[in-house]
Write a structure and sequence with these properties.
With about 60 residues, this protein is of the alpha+beta class. The protein has one domain (about 10-60). The protein has one helix at about 45-60, and strands spanning about 10-15, 20-30, 35-40. It has a three-stranded antiparallel β-sheet with strand order 1-2-3, covered by helices on one side. It comes from Devosia litorisediminis.
Amino acid sequence: MTQDNSLQIKLRLKGGSGPNANWHWELHDATGKVVKTGSAVGPEHKAFATARMAKEKLEAAKG
């Protein structure tokens, strides 16, 4: 069995709604340790895209 070493994105709504929603995102490694955090304002899909870009940058820097 292989272990998946990719980072996981977790989003949390901190306040607001719609275009003024304040999202907090975290990148977790396989052990559950927080590797990077950030925030984004706007709809959920834009906050997820911001977190995904950070995830891709970290993965590219690793290997």
